[in-house]
């Protein structure tokens, strides 16, 4: 996935500007411990029921061209090393103003690296953060590969999704232009293995645009605007959200996610996916409700693509409802693990086609 090494360029969401690497320089700052804030979520994506399967580039945090990932990893990638959130300041001083926040599992670019503090850019947020709470070089690369996701967006009007990586295999379905899907792996012969509904399928690489996605921080202005928009959204859809957050419909929402992520997996795999959500709810490092965990930015691709809304509205399968009911009642078959990926992409506890860690 990360073999090609072309000239470094980086698309940062919202600004979409080209950044050139700045040589590291020492920041003039006294030793200090930056204060962790009280927020524990990133920028949540607000989906409407009619947003099914449309790729919204502005909601995909830190977006990097696939062929440029190696170069970025070697040069200036930075990741937050916090349990919840780190304050980013106007200057390399704990007394300076807070200009934004960078969250757990978020990443960005180092603009200037000092001995105690570094200037970073994460999304639209530019400011200084204590090195004590940042990961650089190989450590940043390892975390980014662990928490980042690969997605593909259809570029042709219609792209065949096939059962095998060849044009003679059977057709599962079709990928529309601008449709967003999760990438499992890439084949050297020009095919990409993707998650397609409850199956794995293959599309030709020439008909999709592959991106590597890492969640980003927010400026204080963006946080205020997000919270204002969230309040307006909550008011406009109050009845619908209250219904989804009732006991009965939390179970339905969790079951819909289980179906999207593990509908073709053995029952133990369904339980494990549900347990990941509930472990996040209980951890304190993620949002405190099932709804907010599922819709947190950069976490679950079905929530971004809109397929989750479609399954929820159609009604999840009975077996997925059963799995959701079990994990909501406290059952877990993966301990306190909070992440999962396709098997073969990460070390961990394997169940069916997934690995949990």
Molecular structure report:
- With 357 residues, the chain is an alpha+beta fold.
- It has helices at 69-75, 137-147, 220-236, 238-245, 247-262, 267-283, 290-294, 301-305, 307-314, 318-328; strands at 11-12, 62-65, 77-80, 85-89, 98-103, 107-113, 117-122, 125-130, 134-136, 149-154, 158-162, 171-176, 180-187, 191-196, 199-204, 208-214, 218-219, 340-342, 349-351, 354-356.
- It has a seven-stranded antiparallel β-sheet. It has a five-stranded antiparallel β-sheet with strand order 8-7-6-3-9. Strands 4-5-17 form a three-stranded antiparallel β-sheet.
Task: Please give a handful of descriptors for the protein shown.
357 residues; alpha+beta; 7-stranded antiparallel beta sheet; 20 strands; 29% helix; disordered N terminus
Structural class: alpha+beta
- Could you state the order of secondary-structure elements as H and E? EEHEEEEEEEHEEEEEEEEHHHHHHHHEEE
Mean pLDDT, to the nearest integer, reads: 77
Euclidean distance between termini CA atoms: 21 Å
Radius of gyration, whole Å: 20 Å
Give the low-confidence spans: 1-61
Total count of helical runs of at least 4 residues: 10
Helix-residue proportion: 25-40%
Form type: globular
Strand content range: 25-35%
Q: How do the strands line up in the largest sheet?
A: 1-2-16-10-13-14-15
DSSP strand tally: 20
Major sheet characteristics: 7 strands, antiparallel
